[in-house]
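Fold sample X.
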Amino acid sequence: MAKSGKLFTIGYEQTPAKAVLDELENAGVKLLVDVRAVTSSRRPGFSKNQLAAGLDERGISYLHLRGLGTPKEGREAARSGKFDALHKIYAKHLKTSQAKEELDELTSLVKKSGPVCLLCYERDHRHCHRQWIAEIIEHRDGVKIENLAARQV
């Protein structure tokens, strides 16, 4: 199977669903991996079933890896702008068996699937756990990371 050699990330904060889907399609993404702990959203088009349906219409597969989501205390730290605390909380979370298993699953998917993209809410990848996930895979496998940004509202 062909390797993509690249892992994308995208956040949907202040972004309409159509713009995110357009960005994913234009980048050639074949699999969107949702790394949110909670897949419900107040933003139209971003709850799990709506998102999966929108992706399916564009030929993009969807996978939710809940174990790679940020635990509640990490989400609270992020909302408060305490990114150092978030990093510590998430680093501890990555040591759980579920997170380790799902990180290995993601690594395998990036190697075997077409281009993969990680999705979370936070627009700025520098303040989101998806960047840390991407960096782990980059260091493990030499995969290049590209952070996508769709048109804002």
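Fold sample Y, listed below.
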Amino acid sequence: MPTSRRSLLAAAGAAGITSLATGTPAGSHENRAIARTIAELVRRSEEANDALMRGDVDRYRALVPLTDDFTLMSPFGGTPSRSARLTDEEWAAIGRFFRNGMLKQELVEAYGSADMIVLAVMEHARHVEVGGLPAQDWSLRVTLVYRREGSEWRLAHRHADSLANGITVEQAAALARG
């Protein structure tokens, strides 16, 4: 018998995982604290990525510190990046890559435990210049994994793709072939 979403959520609740977007009852004090942390990370994520769409990497970095073992799966594909230790020059280049845009974030789902929070979001960048291209709208499907280190929440993983508007199976096959 296939596992249902409801049974997965029930198992997650038994394991101390709270779901925010599905409306799973908060219940305990610990679950309410996790829900507050999730809400704060959702807010910080949107504010940080909105700043990034304007090229403000300093604001982004202040809002979203990275773990030492951070991984990035870029929406442009390729080999995942594995470094949180970007040089100042690399951060400056990131700031130049994005210009004059703004971002709104749509929460799809959020899960949290005492030491890890996962956010599934849709990022909707508006009128942003990316990589020297003319300004356009960009929507991404994004998964963010935050891990608590001491009293601070740090971004451990970001996976984004540009398939928010969907593609055909033929287009997906062509991308998979390279």
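Sample Y note: The radius of gyration is 17 Å.
Also: The CA atoms of residues 73 and 80 lie 5 Å apart.
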